[in-house]
Amino acid sequence: MTTTHTRTGTRTGTRADAYAAELRAAARHVGRRRFLTATGAAAALAFAVNLPAAGTAAAAELDGRRITEDPFTLGVASGDPLPHSVLLWTRLAPRPYEPGGGLPAGTRVTVEWELAHDEHFRRGVRRGTATAHAEFDHTVHVEAVGLAPGRDHFYRFRAGAWTSPVGRTRTAPAPGARPAAVKFAAVSCQAYHDGYFTAHRHLADEDLDVVFHLGDYLYEYAVDATGGARAYTDRTLPDVFARETVTLEDYRLRYALYKSDPDLRAAHAAHPFAVTWDDHETENNYAGGTPENGVPPEEFLIRRAAAYRAYWENQPLRRPQRPTGPDMRLYRRLRFGRLAQFDILDTRQYRSDQAYGDGWQTPGPASEDPSRTMTGATQERWLLDGWQDSLATWNVVPQQVVFSERRNLPTDAYKVSMDSWDGYPASRQRVLAGARAAGIENLMVLTGDVHVAYGLDIKADFRDPASRTVGTEIVTTSVSSGRNGSERPANYDNLTRANPHLRFYDGRRGYVTVALTEDSARADFRTVTAVTTPGAPVATAASFVTEAGRPGLTPA
């Protein structure tokens, strides 16, 4: 979520104190130039996160029969479905709120996995074993292959005498298939300390092909003993969560806290996820190698390396996404037959620093500099080349921050968010020009970040309301961030008057589902009444349709 900050300040007080000694030690030993080499990155990462220098070969094998408590406390997940393959994930953590999850340090555990056509596992499909390494915090990533396209599969894991919950996943349609429909959901921004993940419980009950998580899966901020706005009276969270995440151990423990939530576990067990990060998985509003405030760049990159490693460990991601030091290629492409192509972007790792110190500012020469980039040149070219090769009816771009122009006032004195694509208008225009050159007729951008739901028409020229509509942007609200929210936030009138291409605005919590067919796309904005108390009902706040070949949202 965008917040105002400057790039010239320094950390003071408890935030500075939170930086662990190993981060500063690594920064002293490894300069920025050395860090950005492969050898330097490995050395810095070893300093920062205490990884075993000899790798996993020397790790002792822990007999699963010696695990005396349920190790599957964080559930199961699947992700990045392909026509003949899906990624299966779990983590062994009998005591998830302890460093190492309660397993002996430096050990590895053999885990069995099983995949079937039915939830009772009478019709088996594939099975095998995988190793849960201490190096990766005893997480397991299984790339199950040789599967039938476009169908449900059920999976589970075993370690010793313990069996995991059963998960359901679904492979993508065959490459040349023309499925009648593809239905997906988008979610984002789930601050544990702001409320319950009720939206995920309802999401688990939807019939979906895939869920796109658009970032802020966790927040780096401290969580107090009562869980913040959750106001627990039946439990006390340990002090390890009452500090900002900066080290690998911090991030790993924070994922354990989030994944211990039963509603989030239910959503992961029900659907395959395709994830991408925003800022809070590392630090608020960072830009590339530039931190939020005045931390030395080499120190921030060591923190970024820890954050990226913990992210990969705790998400259903494939081997190509595994990070090397502070670098991780998260942008990637999923195809669902010839109906939909999903180009998943990373708008944090490669972007130029926010102009004018970030926040809401008057646009000017600095923000409009043609050299500024949201995606970096390599990712931008990958996206545009992918559109040139696309055979899909719908080209969908799951990404993080608002793509369409968003003026805060209906006057000439308006400001825009420097953290969104408004702070990178030349980058946005290059993307739109690439879509036009590739003949993309049905462009849909999926967005998170802002803790509200928007439906927007993407204009060829946002300065001219009468200009051609070239695509649709669907912005999902937060799962919990911002607490309960309201149907009409305080800036509702100003924002809707200032942006005639804004067709829908709602400030409550929830998620969005989108159903694609050859003829149309239907978006249903789903909201819950509250997140500061558990168990709130869900309802559809509004539904919109965009017809194939005729971009623009109309009420359903």
From TrEMBL:
Q: Which residues form the Phospholipase D N-terminal domain?
A: 74-171
Q: Domain PhoD-like phosphatase metallophosphatase: where?
A: 184-525
Q: Which domain of life is it from?
A: Bacteria
Q: Name one Pfam family in it.
A: PhoD_N
InterPro entries, per database record: Metallo-depent_PP-like, PhoD-like_MPP, PhoD-like_sf, PhoD_N, Phospholipid_Metab_Enz, TAT_signal
What name does the UniProt record give this protein?
A: Alkaline phosphatase D family protein
What organism is the protein native to?
A: Streptomyces roseoviridis
